[in-house]
Fold this sequence. Notes:
Number of helices: 26
Mean pLDDT: 93
Shape: globular
Low-confidence stretches: 179-183
Largest sheet: 6 strands, antiparallel
Structural class: alpha+beta
Distance between the termini: 69 Å
Radius of gyration: 26 Å
Amino acid sequence: MAERLRDQASAYLRQHADNPVDWWPFSEEAFAEARRRNVPVFISVGYAACHWCHVMAHESFEDAATARYLNEHFVSVKVDREERPDVDAVYMAATQALTGQGGWPMSVFTLPDGRTFYAGTYFPPRQLQGMPSFQQVMEAVSSAWRDRPAEVEASAAQIAAHLASAQAGNRRLIGSLEVTAESGPLSGEVLEAAVDAVLEQVDQRFGGLGGAPKFPPSPLLRFLLVYGSTDRPAAGAAASVADRTLETMARSGLYDQLEGGFARYTVDRAWAIPHFEKMLYDNAQLLRLYAHWSRSAPSEDQRHLALQVSADTAAWLAKRLRVEGGGFASSLDADTLVDGHRREGATYVWTPDELRTVLSGSGADPDAVLSLLDLETGRMEDGGSTLHFGRVLQPEEDRLWQRVRPALLAVRDRRPQPDRDDKVVAGWNGLAIAGLADAALALDDAGDPGEKAAIILDLARDAAGYLLRVHYRNGLLARVSHAGTAAGIEGLLEDYAGVAEGMFALFAATGEEQWYRAAEELVLAAEQRFIVDGVLQDTAVRTDQLAAAQGSLSAADPMDGPTPSGTALFAGVLVTYAAYSGSSRHRALAEALLSHVQLVAARAPRAGGWAMSVLVQALEGPRELAVTGSDPRLVRELLRTGRAAGGPAVVVASGSGGETAVPLLRDRPAPDGGALAYLCRGMVCSRPVADPEELAAQFRTLDS
């Protein structure tokens, strides 16, 4: 019945192609069909790695009787939230307005014009603990549509008005992008209050923020690391929270202790039992965070741990998510198909007996290895346990674990593996490129004795080449591709800005100007595509249905979720671009986009982490480091010194000093056979130096 889904870019949609439900992708044609039949639209939103999405699919969408009812009374639309975050955001807001909560799978009932009148999340096949069955929900919705049309219309109008009000709130948060002479300078005073608010949320026993479920607060951790590298008030407290959170996550069941890579979140407060899906967007951000932490962690053991996590997570990306051509797939499922049944985490969990069997054959003392693990805290309902340490390992303990990892991984690799969603999402790949580039630099600056840094940097280059070759055409960026072909909608603001972020990071790591030129094109295209009548938008093209659902009012949502908001990403690349180009106009635009930080930093710091990190960078100048010359050894030493002294807020450019597309490098000559470093703020530079120690001293003077 669902042949329309068979050739979709989304693995999630393709997974439903054999359902008896007559699914449509989200499209004008689907809503036109609802108008023709005079029936409501059922919109089911999920994603490939979602455990409960699979559960509802098996219970309801694979059931013939349920499918018959849906096909008779509704037009059914299947949406991948990762492919269509614009659709997900609108209907998630409606679901939360109606129920006070949200999640996936999301089940939304709309009029044929797209306005919501009823919504929920997972519905079981039978009434359960006060929750109606899906059949009961369908019958109630169908009855209301048929017998009480005035009530349905009133409900849809009320929800659309509520969403319009929320969009008006977003407009007020971001404010006007018209910069005037009265526009005041940036202020960082609110950032100390944001750190204080974070300190109130810290889990003093297990680290991280809040209780269960526990998510890695990646955008916020970026702020804490950047702020912690300054001499501003509360910098020490910010760095301390970041240090403990990053170390705790790296020694927990959230992190794959055998192969690298992080799960989406843990269901418990102690970080021991993950929801096992692994998402590109989480790992891209965390890879970069651990690379940055490797420079600032207070102890040598922590710096070693950060480098190990960075290297292993990069290797996991290459092994598990890299697709042909160099891009990265979206995710690995939480579930593994074992003997015809989906079992959550089946690939990853172990019984004590299984561990002893493998360890006995590895030559290690099984009791010594098992004593490292907290199997009880990591125990799941089926009796298996995650590999959770729950504590800091001593150096000799860590060496023991590193010795036995290969044997355990070899056995695990022979188990059934989770499915992969092969679609390539542009913005997430941009974040991955940035993470890989920074990880390569961190390893190289730390004296990586092998070829890890070079391999990781090549992974970043390959992914960047894939995006420019497959996703970017005639100044437009496609959001997704599958099997090397772009498909679906134009990229969102988060895609343009995310890819630009990756390209700028890759240029900083390599000095290869093609990446700078690509980033510049994307920044300028985003400015043109997403600022409409002075209002920033998340989408360049909005469907009639989404416009109706939001009361025909829209604005970018500046608040971070698991990924940084498009607004925050765009502000960040504007600050970086202004540092490279000297463009005061783009600097002013970035400052205008950061105005919402003053309102949200102390009230909701977890929703403003990336923007707060950009604000710190902007307040720091940002510091600009241009290194030119023809002596590779000296160029490398100067760059290494600058990265160590400048922290994550420094903007770095390097080149030969001749003709260049990068204004920061222009008119920065270096003597033949030598190299010079120029430390600048706002294109105003200190005396060029050739000695790394003098450069480090200039950084100290600049900060004083």
